[in-house]
Amino acid sequence: MVTLEQFIADRQQEFEGATGAFSKILRDLSLGAKLVSFYLRRASLAGFLGELGLTNIQGESVQKLDAMANRLLINLFSKNPHVAGLASEEEDEILPLNPDGKYVVLLDPLDGSSNIDVGVPVGTIFSVYRRLTPSGTPCTEADFLQGGRKQVAAGYILYGTSTLLFYTTGQGVHGFTLEPAAGEFLLTYPQVQMPPQLTYYSFNDNQLHEWAPGLQRYVADLHAHNRKAPQSPSLRYVGSLVADFHRNLLKGGLFMYPGTLKKPEGKLRLLYEGYPMAWLTEQAGGKATNGTCSLLDVTPTAIHQRTPLFLGPASEIDRVTAFLNEDVPVEAT
User: Fold this and answer.
1) In the listed set 189, 216, 247, which residue is the last one of a domain according to the structure?
2) What are the residues whose beta carbons fall under 8 Å from the beta carbon of 10, sequence distance 6 or more?
3) Where is mean pLDDT largest: 168-172, 213-217, 225-229, 281-285?
4) Do the domain assignments include residue 195?
């Protein structure tokens, strides 16, 4: 079995020469994953469940485990000399760390945390960029607002029946499973490819009446085909992006979290959730869009910018985009 550390060392030359800086960032992420996984397993026994009584900059209630995961990861990266700064969904502003660092890290420390109390899988989403500002100076927002195509690494950690770490550096998607007895992440999913067929679809259509007319027509068309097809795709949606995306990545599925007519910007965060998942999707052979263009081509303007998000097999994303842009005749539906 190949460990995460061995795998990174063997492939290090592909993405950052031989300095070991990126390897240290991935080691910190894997250590953070082990610690967060430990606290999640003990959450109901140690009184970690429930809200903290605070509201973050997103206007969301902060869960106790949100704060724990956020602080834990910040502490890890603050001691890493290669990390110049960090941006987190839970922090109002960017956090300058080590001025000599070559990289900046963006985090959603605990995605889907509102599901923790009911035992639904949650996750950590991460993204890494090479800094733009000169070494030896504090990092700035410009280092974080480079756009999705400038990512040098992105991935997620899923805390479920097992703890999984999936990541890409632009050389495909690779997945590792934590072996608790050894305390090591072992390669279990080399070169992941998203199946091209639509097996599942994941979205909450409770606000269907608030979606764009083209998207309403797409959903109606999807249901119409399901009634006729001998083997139709199934609805699977738990409301944790990492959990829903992971299933669809391995089994072939569409994830949608669109904007509404009142809030066309959507709810999910472009930098912390959109870019990393979009890059993973493309590296696995799928497509990612905001409904208008490839999500990785969207120019960021703010750290906490929101975006509609559509991820899935290329052919299905093309269909969604066609409906959204009114390229499908009414009679075809």
Assistant:
1) 189
2) none
3) 281-285
4) no
| Residue 314 belongs to a domain | yes
Record the pTM: 0.92
Half-sphere exposure (Cβ direction) of 173: Cα atoms closer than 13 Å: 23
Beta strands in 251-300 (DSSP E): 253-257, 268-269, 287-289
Confidence class of residue 276 from pLDDT cuts 50, 70 and 90?
Answer: very high
Same domain, 216 and 143: no
Q: Is 194 contained in some domain?
A: no
Q: In the structure encoding, which two tokens stand for residue 61, read together? A: 């209630």
Helix, strand or coil for residue 123? strand
Tens digit of pLDDT for each residue in 34-78? 999 998 887 676 666 656 556 666 666 667 888 889 999 999 999
Total residue count of the chain as it appears in this document: 333
Does residue 101 sit within a domain? yes
Domain containing residue 308: 200-328
Please name the residues in contact with 145: beta carbons below 8 A apart, sequence gap of 6 or more.
Answer: 271, 300, 301, 302, 303
Shared-domain flag, residues 302 and 240? yes
Distance CA 27, CA 98 (A): 17
Query: Residue 312 pairs with which residues in a beta bridge?
Result: 287
